Structures are given as structure tokens and as C-alpha cells.
């Protein structure tokens, strides 16, 4: 049986225990739109006793909650009490259709049409109409503007009321207050309580441009489309289940392990399974980034999301629904999109103090102008401008928009980011350390020279208990020579050391020289039969085709490189020289690799460990960041922060470059948002910005941050 595709292998199997970082509930939050919403949702859920973690993905409007044993209804109820609408969502599915943008377009149209009509009526007043005529035009404008504003500004009013009903301020509160004050001042003028011109056109323009800003903000987020959403789109909603001789079309989530399903050319697989009949070419490009189809036949494993290109297949379901590799990969990607960086913390803390600060600034500006000028209406005009122009939405978008774009870009390049802190740690890397066998080399070594038949038979008997590439090479050499493996019993594999067992009541070992008992030399492994002279086994290895190019790319961008291996000094030095690696360390045990990484960390270095074997798991976990090929062992993939689904080492420099760009982009966004507020707020307080101009400026700040997030990565 062949191994599952790298994408399938990259997702943890469903029978693994749930860890504290694995989301147990996913809820759709249709109404959230700013950093204050994120903070409120996360703090509300984190306050519940059963909730271990809660992280909002603003772009996808979802919250991922780790709360083993908690009921979904209790989470929804808690959010409702905090003023947030939440809906059930099956992890990995697309969730309810987001009709918000279409609704915003309708409201923009109503506000714009009303604004143009009121502006036409205002022409008469601006042209010199006075007295009863002017008041009549004001009243007609009121009849048009008040219903239009009441409808068009509903998104702001509803969000503000939702927050105020639970004694919470959000950024729609000052926006709603500004719109209401503008309408109230205009209405006062219409009924003769003020000698100033009415502001109905300004109130409508304010609503119109704020709605445009919100629509463009959502459009920008849609441009930063989530890779997890792309994965969810790969799920086949239905399956053809075989019930005896009959075919029945059922929902994909209704499948269970053991069911037989029929897949025809052009069909996307609805579940993970094993082929029991038929043969086909499988398109795995959406999952692995590899464009070439792969042949699959009886006994091969296939994964949901793959496409059958040629023959008809009968597949036995192994995992379905939320347990599929595709669904679990979508969970990992969604978690990674909610990157927790120090910049996210800065933005969150800033957003929390913004809402009360806006009201304080608005009130202080109004009172200050009123005290200095005595002009109530002019003071109100300036106060409204301050309420509108001061907005933390750009800060709220600064980090999550970049995280979503970066992780989606990597995933579409065949690179899966698992950890929600990986981008920041990857951006700090200055040294890249590689394992040798299976990582830097193809992992399929061959014996350079063959020992006598008896030694090869004993070595093959021991090698049967190991999946190490050297063991596979020994078994292949024995099979090629027609030698039957010796009947070794009580075999035990020692990670990073070798394999031992009993043969005719004598202890036999195959492994590293220090552990097996071999003499010093350049052998890859030694066979030691109790009471006999050690026998060396030497191998030759093939460097991965892309390895040299990847190392050169790392050197060009200033990274130091190292090779950490448990093999002998000669083969390690040879591979390091061929690949162009700066430093080579041989005969390292798993503990030695961890110690090497710890020493570098104590020196202030930030090391990325790239490995694929069981003996690399300690290094992957202890390094500043860890990366594994998609073909790596389960333990290595679980310990890694990033998985190269397509297996190519050229993904290493690509990932590091993207991480550095992402963090630079986050810093730029925070600087842009801060600069906007530093410049715009004093201008508004000084009276240089009308409510109309403030609405445009506030919208442009959010749009600028979003566009900066989605622009092309290097």
C-alpha cells in the first residue's frame, strides 16, 4: 500500500487526543466588523469557566473556541448576552452566505439617491431663498432625509444599540451619535430653531460615505480570501454510497467508516478512504500544489478534496465529515490565520481604549469650542467631525488582514502554516538547520558496498523492525541478492541509535558505532553480532534536486545554514559540501540536536529546524520554529509549525521571505493607522474638517490598511 498524499499526511489523524490548542467549537459571527468586536467576543468567551481559548478570525467572521465539554448553545447564549449574534457552523464548511455586501449596496443606493435630491432642494436656499420658502424647502428635505437615514444607517444603529444594551461601547456608537446629531441639528433648523442652514444633505452624505467605506472595507477583506475557505470549497457535498448492488446519493456528512462509495471521472472525493477496486489518475494539485496527476490503484489511500480524473473507483471510507484530513487541515489553516503577534496585542489594547476616548474627545471639543466662540451650532459641527474621524478600525484590520493574506499565499504555494504564532517567529529566524537523511537528501540511500551474505541476512532481519531509510536500503539489497532475512526475535528500535534483537540467543545490533559497538570509521551503520567482529555498512545518498538552489537562496538573503545528522562525519561533510551548507555536525543523537539548538538560542540566535524523522521531533519542538516536509513521519509533522505539503525545500526560503514581508506589512499598517489618527484628530478638533470630510477620511484609513495588506508579496 502506498502512503497517503502529503496533504493527507499533513493533517493529524482524528484518533489523536484533543489538545488545549485544538478548537472544539466554531461559530459564525455575522455582525462583527472591528477590533473592539474581536476583543469583546474573546473576553466574553474567555470568562466562561470551560473555555480554555478563544480566537476570532475577523476576515472569515468566525470564532474558534477550545472548550472541551461545553455546549454550543451556552457559548451562543453568552455571546448574545454580550450583544453578539452567533450561529452554529460545522468546522471546515463555508458557513452561512454573507449577504452583507449586497445589503450595503442597497443602502448606499438609497442614501445616495436621497442625498442628490436634498442637494437639489438646497440649491434654492443657497441661491438666496429665505423666509417661508426656505423653511418649506427645509421641511421637504427633512421628509426625504429622515426616512432615508433611518433605513440606510441601520447597520450603524443596530451595532451601536447592540453594544449599548449590554453597556459596551463600540465604534458604531460615535458614528451613530454623529449621524443622529447631524439630523437633529438639521431638523432644528427646518422648524426655525436655528438661523443656520440645514444639514440634511451633510447627514445623508455622512451616511453615504460611511457606507461606502464599510462596503469597500468588506470588499478588501474578500480580496484577502481565506485559504481555509478555499479548502472548505473543495469539500464534496454529496456522495454515491453503495448499498449492496444499489447506488444511493447521500450527504457527504452522512458517510461512516466502512461505507463503500463510487467515484467516477470528474468527481471530487467526499471522504478519506482506501481504493478497493479500480485505478485512476488523481488530481491533488489543490491540496499539495503539485500540478502533475498521481496514479492510484487498489490498496492506495485517497483524501477528500482530490479529484478522480480517469477510471471509476470503489473506495472504502476510512474517515468522513469533520474527521477527514481536509477538514482538519482547514482547522489548522484557520487557526494560523488568526496570528497572535506582539503587534496584534498592541492593536487590541489600542482598540479597547478607543471608544471611550472618542467620546471624551468629542465632548471636550464641543465644550471647548462652545466656551471659546459661544456658537452652539459651530461647536456641534466640530464635535461631530471628531466623533466621525477618530476610528480604530484601521488598527483592528492591521494584523488580521495581513495574517490571512500571508497564510493563504503560502498555502496556495503548497505550504501549510499550523501554528498561530509562526509568522512572527519565522520572521526572526537567522539560521536554518537541516536534518540530512530524508530532508536534505531524497531519503532513499543505497548500499555503497555489500557485506557477505550472512551479515546481510542478519542486518535485514533487524531492518524489518525499522522504517529508517538505511533499513529500507538494507532490505532492498537483500531482496536484490535473493537473501532471506534472518529470524531475529525480540527486536526493539531505539530512536537515533539503531535496532537490536536476539538471534540464536545472541544479542545483535544494527546502528550507530557508539551504540552498536562498532569501530571508529566512516560507516553509516555497524552490525554487531555478540562475540563477532563488527561489520560496517556504507551508503551513498542522493541530494534533493532543489536543495542546492534553496541553500543558495537562503545565503543570498543573509541566513546562516547548518546540517545536523546522526550519520558519520564523512557522509555528513560530503553532503554539506555538495549543498553548500556553512556548518556540519555529525554523529548527533536526538538529545545532541536539542543541545545544539539550545546553545544557539543562548547565543541569541533564532534557528529554524527542518527535519522529517522521529529523531528530529525534539529539535523541531525546541527550535525557534520547526518545519517538516509533507512526507515526514507523523511525530515530526505534529511537532512542526510549518509543513511543506509539496515536499520541496524551495518552500523554506519562500516561507521565510513571506513571514518577513508579513511582519513588515503589519508594522506598516499599524504605523499608517497611528499616523492617520495623529494627523486627522487634531485637524478635526481645530475645526479644519467638516463631518463630510471626516466620513471620507475615516473610510479611506481602513481602505488604505486593507489594500496595503493585500498588495503583492515579494
Task: Report on this structure.
With 714 residues, this protein is α+β, with helices and mostly antiparallel strands. It contains 26 helices and 27 strands. A hairpin with a 2-residue loop joins strand 5 and strand 6. It starts with 5 loop residues before the first helix and ends with a helix.
Question: Which short descriptors sum up this protein?
Answer:
27 strands; alpha+beta; elongated; six-stranded antiparallel beta sheet; seven-stranded mixed beta sheet; 16% strand; 714 residues
Mean pLDDT: 78
Poorly predicted regions are: 1-20, 90-97
**Strand share of the residues?**
15-25%
Radius of gyration: 32 Å
Terminus-to-terminus distance: 41 Å
Shape: elongated
Count of individual beta strands: 27
Structural class: alpha+beta
Q: Helical percent range?
A: 40-55%
